[in-house]
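Check these lines:
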Amino acid sequence: MPSPSTAAPQRVVLFTDDDPLLLDGGGRLDHVEVAYETWGTLAPDASNAVFVCHALTGDAHATGTPEAPGWWETMVGPGRPVDTERFFVICPNLLGGCRGTTGPASVDPATGSPYGLDFPLLTVRDFVTVHRRLARHLGIDRMLAVVGGSLGGMQALQWALDAPEEVARAVVVAGSSRLSAQNIAFSAVARSAIMRDPGFADGRYAEGDGPRTGLAIARMMAHITYLSEQAMAEKFGRRFQDADEPRHRFGVDFAVESYLEHQGQTFLDRFDALSYLYLSRSLDYFDCFAEPDATDALTAADDPTRFLVVSFDSDWRFATSHSRRIVRELERARVPVSFREVSAPHGHDSFLLDDDDYLGTVAAFLDQAAEQAAGQAGGKGAGRAS
């Protein structure tokens, strides 16, 4: 087993043909490799483990160095709420992703060619099944906390619903228990842009350029939904890009157009179109409270997961109403849950940014978790001594 104190990227095969991953939708994968990173040192009793779940287009590199910063530097790192000097922090690339973990662009062992659209559909529960196996691989039976924003928050929620005995605390930021029709519509248009690009080639584009135009458009549209109207007005307004007057053409005239163009083009260098299709579809299907017994495991647990649910008042992609629904369902199950709506102007992207109220709320919740864990360990030690 790799050393639990290294921050270097690591890979591990967690499922094989002798022990396949049986998927929520009935399919199976006979080979699943997971890329992950860890920071900090695991306590002897494994009581300080914090699992970070990434959002739709994230990866395992949650935090890093000034030369190679991570995608959640505001949340994860020395002195941050998820303090890498205090906690042992784990972040994997999702199943279905394209940054080292098995996904649709991976080679199918049965054919020797990339899976393409033959890759099975995935659910958030499948992501969690792989997370749980990775935790066991690292010798961790119970997480001090599972933390995630957006799709990451949905993974934290699903994990606590499926196996509350494995999650002491769950932090769900800017998340949802099910997507609205509007959210599904945004994803449908993004996938359509990708699949209608001639470069998509029915998903068999490994040796070609791929659907670069379609993927860039998908990313551009997604970024519109990640920012609030106020944030766009303050950041771009109606300013022209590199000109004092409009050029009366259909290219990039406005600063906001230049921003979206940049976001679309830079995305092409780091993300795969098939992964975008599969991961966005998993969001559409997510409906974690749909079954009548969805919270039964939580209710029956001797020490149920404690939740922190955070929303942002300017987030219209996953508005506060989404978070309030999560809170209502958990309260109905008599599960300990704290809720905070944070006033922040940046829209859905607020969960990635440096906001004192938001980060202070998460830090206090995790501090309390650490203190509680230390108290429980002290109590056990006292019992043994007596």
Summary: The chain has two domains: 10-178+289-385, 183-282. The radius of gyration is 21 Å. Residues 356-385 form the longest helix (30 residues).
